[in-house]
Amino acid sequence: MMETPLENEAPAAGTGGPEQGEESEASDEALAFMSSIEPAELQRCVFPDSLVTVSEGGRELGKFSVTVELSRRVQRPCVLLHAQSQGAINDCPCGTTVTAYLTTDLEVLEEDYHEYVKLEDHSLDKRCHMVQCEGQMMIDKVTTVGEEVTKESVSYPMSSLKGLITEGSNFLLMRLIALRKKVPEHTTFISLDQGLHIIHSTFGELGLHQLVVGGETVEVYGVERTVHSLEYGPTTWQCYFLDDGHLASRVQVGSPVTMRLLQLPSHHISEKGSEKIPLVWEEDMEMRSKFLGRKEELKADHASYLRQHPEIRALISDFLQFLLLRKPEDVFQFAREYFLPFASPPSPRTVSKPSHTERTLKSTS
């Protein structure tokens, strides 16, 4: 239901990068766009989007949301983006989640992608993780169909990924284009297809249109993105944005499903005279979606921290083994004594001086 170039299966790719996309490069205009992003522009992109997914007949199928916030990672400022769609296709639950850490010029530091479809006889689960490590982009993809598991691993030098637009960075790039209301000419980025090959992706301007949102007709700006895969053919998405960058409509060309904004962000329903209803967040689709989204976001963040600090697992493992061997009655005291050698020695400035009373008692003893 989300934009998913990794949607279909492909032959496993080998370490070092597949041959198909070796000559794919981003255009100078694309690189110039990324390097021209100003902090003030990014600040304007820090807001959530929330849309509903509907069928051609107007039936609501699910929810779609994107959150963007400023963060820090590896002692450098970055943008944390989290996008999620949840719903059902032919009454089968499905969803997609993307969590990405991006530099201020949209370079990917780390990204997690998860897609699932729960069918009656079997399920489909796809996960893709990419992270920068020592000048390389390490990419691991795991696809589970029923009980069959396929694993693929690829690594690319960062020098070959200039102008890369991924699942996560695409959402932020579209917002920036919408706020500028201009798609630079000859702007060609690179992306990854289902087989993790490097391919081209291009953007085009759809111009200004009229769209009905929440019963009001508003002017929206359209942007079209096409991913050009030699193996799977081109795939195109069309998005329309409000003046402030909020996403108003999103559709994959040829798909019967559309994502729509139901109410303008500035509209609020008055609660005057209305009876307060107890909030049961578990039964509220939007709040439950936000809860699950935040949960996935925290899991990805915690997993990333543990990967950066493998000593944590070793330390905890050693402590548990020692604890089970000794089996102390007072676990808290045992833990205190075990971890005490790891504590830093107190600074001379923090050592308390004896009080006047203590000095007097000591001198008279």
TrEMBL record:
<feature type="compositionally biased region" description="Basic and acidic residues">
    <location>
        <begin position="355"/>
        <end position="365"/>
    </location>
</feature>
<dbReference type="GO" id="GO:0005886">
    <property type="term" value="C:plasma membrane"/>
</dbReference>
<dbReference type="GO" id="GO:0030041">
    <property type="term" value="P:actin filament polymerization"/>
</dbReference>
<dbReference type="Pfam" id="PF21772">
    <property type="entry name" value="CATIP_N"/>
</dbReference>
<dbReference type="GO" id="GO:0044782">
    <property type="term" value="P:cilium organization"/>
</dbReference>
<dbReference type="InterPro" id="IPR048777">
    <property type="entry name" value="CATIP_N"/>
</dbReference>
<keyword id="KW-0472">Membrane</keyword>
<comment type="similarity">
    <text>Belongs to the CATIP family.</text>
</comment>
<dbReference type="InterPro" id="IPR047501">
    <property type="entry name" value="DD_CATIP"/>
</dbReference>
<dbReference type="GO" id="GO:0005856">
    <property type="term" value="C:cytoskeleton"/>
</dbReference>
<keyword id="KW-0206">Cytoskeleton</keyword>
<keyword id="KW-1003">Cell membrane</keyword>
<keyword id="KW-0970">Cilium biogenesis/degradation</keyword>
<dbReference type="GO" id="GO:0005634">
    <property type="term" value="C:nucleus"/>
</dbReference>
<comment type="function">
    <text>Plays a role in primary ciliogenesis by modulating actin polymerization.</text>
</comment>
<keyword id="KW-0963">Cytoplasm</keyword>
<feature type="region of interest" description="Disordered">
    <location>
        <begin position="1"/>
        <end position="29"/>
    </location>
</feature>
<protein>
    <recommendedName>
        <fullName>Ciliogenesis-associated TTC17-interacting protein</fullName>
    </recommendedName>
</protein>
<feature type="region of interest" description="Disordered">
    <location>
        <begin position="346"/>
        <end position="365"/>
    </location>
</feature>
<keyword id="KW-0539">Nucleus</keyword>
<feature type="domain" description="Ciliogenesis-associated TTC17-interacting protein N-terminal">
    <location>
        <begin position="29"/>
        <end position="256"/>
    </location>
</feature>
